[in-house]
Amino acid sequence: MTYAAITGWGKCLPPAVLTNDDLSTFLDTSDEWIVSRTGMRERRVSHVPAIEMSVVAASQALACAGLEGKDVDLIIYGSCSNDEGVPNSASGVQIALGATHAAAMDVNTACTSFCYGLATATAMIRSGMVKNAVVIGVELISRFLDWSNRNVAVLFGDGAAAVVLQASETEEGLIGTALGCDAEARETLRVRGLGLCYANSDVRFGDTLWDFDGQVIFKRAVHAMTEASKRVLLECGKTPDQIDLVVPHQANLRIIESVAKYSGIPMERVMVTVHKYGNMSAATVPVALVEALEEGRVTPGGYILMPAFGGGLTYCSLLVKWGDRVTPLGTSSRILPPCTETALQMVNAVRAVHDAHGSSHAGLMAPEFVETALAL
Ligand code: UT7
How close is the Cα of 176 to the center of ligand 1, in Å? Predict the structure, then answer.
């Protein structure tokens, strides 16, 4: 039987830090509110496009696995914030890595994109279609976030991470997968303005209006991640006490605590990064995994549970059996160019462009074509 071992891992966090106090310079919010309701203290703002973050993360992951770009058969780019629609983003990573023999595809299931990508790449390796794959989770949300809306502006951050998968005859890697989608609630999380049904209307690209029913998403997220976790454990014949580490999607500390509680796993065995990076959507699970490895929290042969949810509302829980190696074989010298601005300066620049053009939010609601698309 063929498995898909995780043999490389790497991350890229842009250096500019946006604190809760920075946010309260232009929003009616406070450090106290954000920390108590979400657990978030700061997040990153990227000065480079998402592909550039991805290339740094993927280069690290390849060096960690002892591979080069030419060894890669498949690149999966998990994200909902692609730099461009066409060409796809995975092709931009392919050329930068020199992965000339690789298939390159984008996966967008919002915050679960990395996990769906991991499941897809694992299935392709296990079927014998490919041998070596790079799976990326990346998001650059700061460029299209509605910074005037405190319901969403305090929650999100930018970042990237990647893993390398390799065909193996040993039982390791992703061994159980529960994927699903709670589409009845798909209208509870919608970014108006982010999509081609708005093309050639009076909406300026990047000018978004977020439909975001936080409380409904919260409840459905806890339910879906808990049920998916129970399902994958049952299918794999495992019990909560056999799980060494939970690496969950990081949308809110209270969501993470609830999922841990209802899944019967104590918080000591849960990886938390939400205080440092906020919700980086598709990047949260792989960044948390990389940091768990860096902190020595992943043990050889250990079982790792990865529950996640996102727009759609897509959800999943993945069960990974780690292999023998928990340290990198090598390191990459590829880093981001220096950042010359503060995070607050970059955010204020986005806000200034928005203000200079005047809001086109009205166009996000009105055109008949858009309404037809959104009614689906
Ligand atoms: O990855 C998928 C993305 N989605 C999510 O992660 C969403 C999950 N939902 C959540 O994490 C939480 O529902 C939120 C963090 C979004 C909101 O927390 P909450 O405890 O559900 O707050 P709430 O929406 O019930 O709002 C409570 C109060 C309201 O004021 P009133 O009506 O009680 O006077 C809000 O207007 O807090 C107010 N509020 C804020 N106050 C200060 C909402 N946002 C803020 C803010 N700063 N940023």
Answer: 33
Task: Give the model's confidence band at 367: pLDDT under 50 very low, under 70 low, under 90 confident, else very high.
Answer: low
Contact 187, 154 (CB under 8 A): no
Type and span of the H or E element at 298: none
Q: How many CB atoms lie within 10 A of CB 19?
A: 16
Q: Label residue 376 by pLDDT band (50, 70, 90).
A: low
Dihedral of alpha carbons 66, 70, 71, 73, sign: positive
pLDDT of residue 362: 60
3-class SS shares of the chain: helix, strand, coil, % to 5: 40, 25, 35
Q: What secondary structure does DSSP assign to 53-80, as a single string?
A: HHHHHHHHHHHHHT--GGG-SEEEEE-S
CA of residue 129 relative to chain centroid, distance: 25
Which CATH code for domain 3-323+345-375? 3.40.47.10
Numbers of helices and strands, H then E, in the chain: 12, 13
SS3 assignment, position 364: helix
**pLDDT surpassing 80 at residue 46:** yes
Q: Where are the domains of the chain?
A: 3-323+345-375
Cα distance between residue 296 and residue 292, in whole Å = 6
Confidence of residue 315 (pLDDT cuts 50, 70, 90): very high
- Which of 175-184, 192-201, 285-294 has the weakest average pLDDT? 192-201
For the CA of 38, the closest atom of ligand 1 is 15
Using CB distances shorter than 6 Å, the residues near ligand 1 are: 29, 33, 37-38, 111, 150-151, 154, 214-215, 217-218, 251-252, 279, 310
- State the DSSP string of 102-164: -EEEEE-BTBTHHHHHHHHHHHHHHTTS-SEEEEEEEE--TTT--TT-HHHHTTB--EEEEEE
What count of residues does the chain have?
Answer: 376
Q: What is the pLDDT of residue 174?
A: 98
This prediction's pTM: 0.96
Q: Is pLDDT of 375 > 90?
A: no
Rounded to the nearest angstrom, the distance between the alpha carbon of 37 and the centre of ligand 1 is 7
